[in-house]
């Protein structure tokens, strides 16, 4: 039977012999997983490694800052994952080999937003006897002191969590906000971007509409639109206004329920705000998909399961495509509001600080293990696809040949352990890796 190609997918990408869903199919099945690298995070070597690991682990989307160099680093990480998939293929077919690359998303803001800021202070104004509580509380080691009066915040490492601001005993640390500009991307760079997320707040209809109009050149390249918004008494009618402004859409739409921004690595209780907001949006019946974020962590799936908010029956895992209420790639628009599929379960989860924290301690060791196969390049530099291989008779054993005892294997296991909480296909690593 002939079927139409779903938006953002290639014809024939899903067959009985190829059971792993594409990112689009994961979204429909309720098993979509996104890694948030940070809307303000610009540590390109780390982003490259994160993209590589979570692509191999089966993530559906990698969300990065709207910075051309950051996008290039993430793309390089995806290329690294493809290269590694070829080496890991003799173990078991990886999720990446079966399903293709995750979609690469960039985040934009329509107004001042806590995700789009950097901490700043002048260490020369810090008293010598200060205990520097800002330094240990920083999750990315962005605050560095060279001496009592020298140092400060390394902007590339700061993603604006604000924890240092809260603990400074003298209130000397400030947040410097900025606007991510879509005009900064060239037409050549746009083809590297699969999806966009717009961060907004209730009452910002005018600002959102202005940004939406400025995104006109982006729309032909996009496979998905995501709207991230925190809770508010009027959030539901506000999101309905945004939908009416954007409709008709030729691609899927996600409502990202940003419960407690940038807090998932602080403790299991942070997930409650994201779930409460997700419940509110689901109950409102807004057209589109619902995806919790902001405070999500290793406890989120269990909480969602207990509340019946996860589609967990095998028969629901791979629906027909395209689904009711979404336009095919040929039809050029979403169906009217009344015919859009209404859901009562989430479509996926986004992990930010928690997802990054699972693997960050291993990234340097993974870099070291892969170095012999990178020729003169490093994970800290673009390799342009020129992966090498050691020629010495005493060359080390490749980490993909000893996953049990390698940092690469540990990192993949941790990343997949998180991704697989919402997935049913757990076939990438051997059973002992979970």
Apparent shape? globular
- Helix percentage: 25-40%
The chain-level mean pLDDT equals 79
Q: How is the biggest beta sheet arranged?
A: 8 strands, parallel
Strand content: 5-15%
Distance between the termini: 37 Å
- Flag low-confidence runs: 1-19, 313-341, 375-380, 382-386, 425-434
Provide the number of structural domains. Answer: 2
Order of helices and strands: HEHEHHEEHEEHEHEHEHEHEHEHHH
CATH architecture classification of the largest domain: Alpha-Beta Barrel
- Give the total of beta strands: 12
Adjacency order of strands in the biggest sheet: 11-10-9-8-3-2-1-12
The first-level CATH class of the largest domain is given as Alpha Beta
Named CATH topology of the largest domain: TIM Barrel
Task: Chart the SSEs and their pairings.
Layout: H1 23-29, E1 32-36, H2 44-57, E2 61-65, H3 68-88, H4 95-99, E3 103-109, E4 117-120, H5 134-137, E5 143-147, E6 150-153, H6 163-167, E7 174-177, H7 187-190, E8 195-199, H8 205-214, E9 224-229, H9 235-246, E10 253-258, H10 271-284, E11 289-293, H11 300-306, E12 348-351, H12 353-359, H13 363-370, H14 407-419
Parallel strand pairs: 1-2, 1-12, 2-3, 3-8, 8-9, 9-10, 10-11
Antiparallel strand pairs: 4-7, 5-6
Helix pairs in contact: 2-3, 2-14, 8-9
